[in-house]
Design brief:
Helix 4 crosses helix 7. The strands form two sheets. A seven-stranded mixed β-sheet has the order 1-4-3-2-7-6-5, with helices on both faces. It has a three-stranded antiparallel β-sheet with strand order 8-9-10. The protein is an alpha+beta fold and about 240 residues long. The radius of gyration is 18 Å and the shape is globular.
């Protein structure tokens, strides 16, 4: 028996008995329910994803990105496409593979956003290796295959946490927590958490207070204004609040 099976690592590129076990336990994902999502993992070579949250394991027939879109729509969280364009325009958090973010948690993609694993950076206990295998150990005990090395995951986790902190700074619920990004985050006392805590984007805000929210609201208005002019019948009016 190889190390990967001994470790019971969930791999989005390879079917295994571990997939069978989680699917047997999973219940249907309802985007209307309140969840803090730990990670979303596409099923290998078949339709759907597993969604791991603090409440347990759920199955959804949609892709990971559509799962997040429906979840954001249900709770009036920022639209991923609009927020990504805002973050790209700001230019301080990279140029691609932006995280999905709301005031309560964030998820970053490991690879192309269309079909990849999405991980909550604050739920990673450590990135480990076993031979040539890299895997993330989550705080809930789940172990999942990751296709990139620890350093690159740390960089993406850093950006996701910095954006989450900026969004929280603009939020009514989190606006008085502190002066630095790391003051707005709950980082575990683990090797990965301690490495993340020392990253430069978490030492000082690179945006002004209110900047992310202000830019997002402007971009959202312009996005729907263009749709209003061109195709008003296609606007999801029920999402306006």
């Amino acid at each position: 028996m190889n190390d990967e099976h001994q470790l019971e690592v969930l791999d989005d590129r390879k079917w295994s008995q571990l997939w069978e076990r989680y699917l047997a336990e999973a219940i249907a994902f309802d985007p209307l329910d309140k969840h803090e999502i730990n990670c979303i993992i596409p099923l290998p070579d078949r339709k759907g994803v597993l969604v791991f949250t603090e409440k347990g394991c759920f199955y959804n027939t949609q892709s990971a990105l559509n799962t997040l879109r429906h979840f954001a729509f249900a709770h009036c969280f920022p639209d991923y496409s609009i927020m990504s364009s805002v973050l790209k325009d700001i230019g301080r958090f990279g140029k691609y593979k932006f995280p999905w973010v709301c005031p309560f948690f964030a998820l970053f993609p490991l690879e192309s956003v269309q079909h990849t694993v999405w991980i909550n950076p604050l739920k990673i206990r450590e990135i480990n290796t076993s031979g040539i295998l890299f895997y993330a150990e989550m705080v809930d005990g789940l172990k999942l295959h990751v296709p990139i090395q620890r350093y690159y995951i740390l960089l993406r986790a850093e950006a996701a946490c910095a954006i989450l902190a900026a969004v929280r700074q603009d939020s009514f619920y989190f606006s008085t927590l502190g002066k630095f990004p790391k003051d707005y985050l709950t980082l575990y006392n683990t090797s990965f958490g301690n490495s993340l805590r020392k990253r430069p984007l978490l030492q000082q805000f690179v945006t002004k207070s209110g900047e992310v929210n202000r830019r997002y609201q402007r971009a959202r208005f312009l996005h729907y204004y263009d749709e209003l002019v061109d195709e008003p019948e296609n606007i999801p009016w029920e999402s306006w609040s």
